[in-house]
Amino acid sequence: MGENYENVLKYFVQMLLDLSGKKILVTGIANNRSIAWGIAQQLHAAGAELGITYLPDEKGRFETKVRELTNPLKPSLFLPLNVQDNSQMESVFETINNDWGRLDGLIHCLAFAGKEELIGDFSATTAEGFSRALEISAYSLAPLCRHAKPLFSKGAGVVTLTYLGSERAIPNYNVMGVAKAALEASVRYLSAELGPENEVRVNAISAGPIRTLASSAIGGILDMIHNVEEKAPLRRTVTQTEVGNTAAFLLSNLSSGISGQTIYVDAGYCINGM
Ligand code: IMJ
Fold first, then answer.
1. Does ligand 1 have an atom closer than 6 angstroms to the CB of 118?
2. Residue 32 and residue 123: Cα distance in Å, rounded?
3. Taking burial as the number of CB atoms within 10 A of a residue's CB, which of 164, 241, 251, 262 is the most buried?
4. Crossing angle, helix 35-45 and helix 61-70, to 10 degrees?
């Protein structure tokens, strides 16, 4: 009887975490280590129809790489998006409106700070460096939601990525910590704005350190990872797949009561006192 009950539960969980037919835009895939790539794969596994954006550059290197990588997921949209370029953002949502007619999910995995800003003294941050980091890593979520707002279906979801450096002083994270703090506050304000009309939910995932393009360039990342492996309750780091599964959960009906939150996918690391 207990076994039967468990099977019934499993069936319902699968049903509720079913994203089939959902149209979801995924930003922030740069390569096969990107957390956004882990998210895209798990959304695809749950049956979602994906739109993928890539950062356009002169030589089209990202475009080629991201197109090859995401090809198996059969994205129905594949679009350039540099969030600092208004016309690109407008044309992304024009295409979504024309081709999809609605949007069920938005994944925001965008961050950038100058390398020189991610080492040494925080007080050395320039005004330009500060503005750029906050514009790309935090502000961009607001105009994405503004453009998406008229397209969001009932119960649609927005998920962004943050990091513990928003609330703790983590060596070298510096201006990115300030940007993530602004991003997490933006999640709360967007949640308050988008919830009332159509039950659109906005949440952040605070991922533990993972070896990615965004982290490999950073001095001391290996020390951070070893520290997590020694001290996190699970005694290991998390994977892109685990972050992806949480994103799938947050865009599914299983999380229908959750909005405005920062959910930690960090092997428990942040609960430690030291
Ligand atoms: C980034 C800097 C310092 C410490 C860091 C990180 N730790 C972790 C990261 C401990 C885990 C990675 N992270 C959470 C980020 O948000 C990274 C953002 C980032 C990384 C780069 C590297 C290359 C570059 N600009 C960047 N901008 C943002 O030129």
1. yes
2. 34
3. 251
4. 30
Whether the predicted model's global pTM rises above the 0.70 cut: yes
Q: Is residue 1 part of a domain?
A: no
Instruction: Return d(Cα 255, Cα 191) in angstroms, integer.
Output: 14
Q: How many domains does the chain have?
A: 1
Q: Is the CB of 59 under 6 A from ligand 1?
A: no
Q: How does pLDDT run across 264-273, given as a tens digit for each residue? A: 999 999 999 9
Answer whether residue 6 is part of any domain.
Answer: no
Asked whether residue 194 is domain-assigned, the answer is yes
Task: Please report, for the domain that includes residue 208, its CATH number.
Answer: 3.40.50.720
Token digits of residue 221? 């990342």
CA angle in degrees (0–180, nearest 5) for 249-79-52: 20
Name the packing angle between helices 141-148 and 86-99 (round to 10°).
30
Which of 173, 223, 237, 265 should be mutated for ligand 1, with most atoms under 8 A from CB? 173
Domain range for 134 is 16-268
Q: Is 269 a catalytic residue?
A: no
One-letter amino acid identity for 173? Y
Residues 110 and 113: their CA atoms lie apart, in Å, by 11
The alpha carbon of 7 and the centre of ligand 1 are apart by a number of angstroms equal to 42
Crossing angle of helices 127-134 and 174-198, in 10° steps, is 30
Q: Could you tell me the distance, in angstroms and rounded to a whole number, from the CA of residue 124 to the centre of ligand 1?
A: 17
Considering only CA atoms, which of 54, 51, 29, 49 is closest in space to residue 39? Answer: 29
Give the residue ranges of the chain where pLDDT is below 70.
Answer: 1
In a domain? residue 4? no
